[in-house]
Specification:
Blueprint: E1 2-6, H1 15-27, E2 32-36, H2 40-50, E3 57-60, H3 68-75, E4 80-85, E5 96-101, H4 111-117, E6 122-125, H5 128-138, E7 143-144, E8 161-167, H6 181-193, E9 200-206, H7 212-221, E10 227-231, H8 235-242, E11 247-250, H9 270-276, E12 281-285, H10 290-293, E13 301-303, H11 306-318, H12 320-334, H13 339-349
Parallel strand pairs: 1-2, 1-4, 2-3, 4-5, 5-6, 6-7, 8-9, 8-11, 9-10, 11-12, 12-13
Length: 351
């Protein structure tokens, strides 16, 4: 099959890009796969950051920039096209059309959209959290394809630090602290001020040049505290260090009205699973896709308030037996989201 893949955020270098390019990697084993994009350097950055094998994947002109007629004539050459959609439904002439949606969509479908939807063979989502919203608003059945997660193994000797991974900001989300990293910095500082000793907080972030000034303000706020930043590291480098962590924090969605704006929570949580895959115990917010990953008190802990975050973290710090017990269960849970399962599922959905 000749398959085209389009990710409108390929230059964002985030989890969605890893998801879509891993689909390309999986499908390229038995198919001719092309990425619709005009800047090859963006693809190289994604490949390097996430250690993907895209040697069999070609990059071609972005047909989504073509005039309508030319786009239809070009798309007819493809057996299937896979599109990362923000809720919009493209008109294409490929034999099959697949849409991937990664966040809740609330827009009501127009008559035109309903007609366009009839050309879509399948919609697949990255979590049950997202899937429920899409099915409710689009009145369709969606497939579930959890993101690919690298399980590095629980082998490293653990050290006394809490770990977090995430982009510093997301440009298309209207909040200055989408991942709530400043919230976590302040929470850890408070724990240190209250007497916590011999522990540090390591934050691994990807930072866009456009956001460097704002990022530096957060770094400055952490001065004189045992808080470190790992900036724009490759996946392998990141988890070489992160594998030594005992605890993992995630707070996306904290302080937001998630009833009105559920998209401001984590739609799944790849980094949470990766942390579990190195034996770090997740202490993460009880919102969005995090609730699908972690069973509170079984393979990690969920929290609703910063007081709970502190209490549950200190419980693990003070009880090494509990931390070891939860760590083992956390690791076992993570394996159900590994890349092998992702690849098998991709080929079941896109065929």
């Amino acid at each position: 099959m000749k398959i085209g893949i389009f990710d409108p955020y390929l230059d964002d270098n985030g989890g969605g890009e890893r998801y879509m390019m891993t689909i390309a990697e999986c499908l390229s084993e038995k198919n001719e796969v092309e990425i619709f994009w005009d800047n090859p350097e963006d693809l190289k950055k994604v490949k390097q950051r996430f250690s993907l094998d895209l040697s069999s994947v070609k990059i071609t002109e972005n047909i989504f920039n073509y005039p309508f007629v030319k786009k239809q004539k070009t798309s007819m050459k493809y057996d299937a096209i896979v599109v990362l959609s923000d809720g919009s439904i493209p008109i294409l002439s490929s034999k099959k059309l697949y849409l991937h949606m990664q966040q809740p969509v609330f827009s009501t479908l127009s008559v035109k959209d309903k007609l366009k939807l009839k050309r879509v063979n399948k919609i697949f989502c990255n979590s049950a959290f997202t899937k429920d919203f899409i099915e409710k608003n689009y009145k369709v059945k969606c497939d579930l394809l959890y993101p690919p997660v690298s399980i590095f193994g629980n082998h490293a000797k653990k050290e006394n630090f809490i770990f977090h991974v995430g982009r510093f900001r997301v440009m298309n989300v209207k909040t200055d602290d989408y991942k709530k990293q400043q919230v976590m910095v302040d929470a850890f500082k408070k724990m240190i001020d209250k007497g916590l000793k011999d522990w540090r907080f390591l934050i691994a972030v990807s930072v866009n040049e456009r956001e460097d000034e704002k990022f530096r303000k957060m770094v400055d706020s952490a001065k004189n505290y045992p808080i470190e930043f790992l900036i724009n590291s490759s996946k392998d480098e990141l988890w070489k260090k992160g594998s030594k962590a005992k605890i993992y924090w995630h707070a996306t969605g904290y302080g937001e009205d998630l009833e009105k704006n559920p998209q401001l929570s984590e739609h799944f949580g790849i980094s949470t699973v990766e942390a579990m895959g190195v034996g770090a115990v997740p202490v993460v917010i009880n919102a969005g896709g995090q609730k699908e990953i972690v069973a509170d008190g079984v393979d990690g802990f969920l929290w609703d308030t910063l007081e709970e975050l502190e209490t549950k973290t200190l419980m693990l710090i003070k009880d090494s037996n509990l931390l070891d017990k939860i760590s083992k269960k956390s690791f076992e849970r993570a394996k159900s989201f590994d890349e092998k399962n992702f690849g098998q599922r991709v080929n079941e959905i896109i065929k």
